[in-house]
Amino acid sequence: MKTKKPNLEILWKQLEDSLVPRLRLAVADRAAYCYLLRHSRLEGKPRLRFSMPWLAGGICLSSDAARRAVRRLIDQELLRLIERSTAGHVVDVRLPQEILAGLPKEIAPRHAVPAVPRINLEEEDFLRTNALRHAIHAREAGRCFYCLRLLTPPMKCIDHVVPRAHSGNNSYRNLVSCCRECNSQKGPCRAEDFLRSLFRERKLTERELAARLRALDALASGKLPPPLPSGMAPDNRSPAAPQRRARAVSSTPSKTP
């Protein structure tokens, strides 16, 4: 659905005079944001589907550099991630005035003590920021949740235990750090069945299989919360009721780094 196109003069002044200096946008981030803004809000479309090669070609960067710029834009809430898949990204591109309206005043009162951000573990989207994604990786201590192999950074990805198509969410109860091989091999089978297949292939011992099945139960029951990023604290004022474990169906391979 198309929306009213913004006033270009006002938009550009807000971008150049306020948004860029306030957020200290890097050159690559600024280029990516302007390019996505050009093909969405300036066309009267708040939502945009794009591929990383398309964006990289448009701003003359490598795909990896463009991908890092998009992650930073999502972290700074210039973009709202709606969908990520092998086919590309779907994002809501926010206007400078919308972003600036949510920023704190530039001049803070003297001696003000900054509030520690609090997050509700049961409601938090752990794919929302890089820091929260890294918390999922940190919980597994550098090993694949499924096969237990030690992981190097290029081998890591995040997997939905219960896929989005089966009402799986981005809760810490439904996300695990795993190797790309396990992520791609799981296919449509249930997580427990996939672990048993690893045992049959002698990638897990009998003791390791039992421990992985217990870990899967502990994950679903909320007993494996990830370590929170520095500067964040859990919000314990209104704890959510424990959720019943969803049927652990393995997800469609997820390539979230």
Q: What does this entry show, briefly?
A:
The protein has 257 residues and is of the alpha+beta class. Helix content is 37%, strand content 12%. The protein has nine helices and seven strands, in the order H-H-E-H-H-E-E-H-E-H-E-E-H-H-H-E.
Describe the model.
This protein is α+β, with helices and mostly antiparallel strands. Helix content is 37%, strand content 12%. The protein has two domains: 8-101, Arc Repressor Mutant, subunit A (Orthogonal Bundle), CATH 1.10.10; 118-234, no CATH class. A three-stranded antiparallel β-sheet has the order 1-3-2. Strands 4-7 form a two-stranded parallel ribbon. Strands 5-6 form a two-stranded antiparallel ribbon. A hairpin with a 2-residue loop joins strand 2 (79-85) and strand 3 (88-93).
How are the secondary structure elements laid out?
Elements: H1 8-23, H2 27-38, E1 47-50, H3 52-59, H4 63-75, E2 79-85, E3 88-93, H5 96-101, E4 118-119, H6 130-139, E5 156-160, E6 175-179, H7 180-185, H8 191-200, H9 206-220, E7 233-234
Parallel strand pairs: 4-7
Antiparallel strand pairs: 1-3, 2-3, 5-6
Helix pairs in contact: 2-3, 2-4, 3-4, 8-9
**Uncertain spans, ≥5 residues at pLDDT below 50?**
238-256
The beta-strand count equals 7
Helical content band: 25-40%
What is the 3D form?
Answer: elongated
The Cα radius of gyration reads 21 Å
Quick check: average pLDDT? 82
Spatial ordering of strands, largest sheet: 1-3-2
Largest sheet: 3 strands, antiparallel
* Overall structural domain count: 2
* Structural class label: alpha+beta
How much of the polypeptide forms β-strand, as a percent range? 5-15%
**Alpha-carbon distance between the two ends:** 31 Å
Per DSSP, the total helix count is 9
The SSE order reads: HHEHHEEHEHEEHHHE
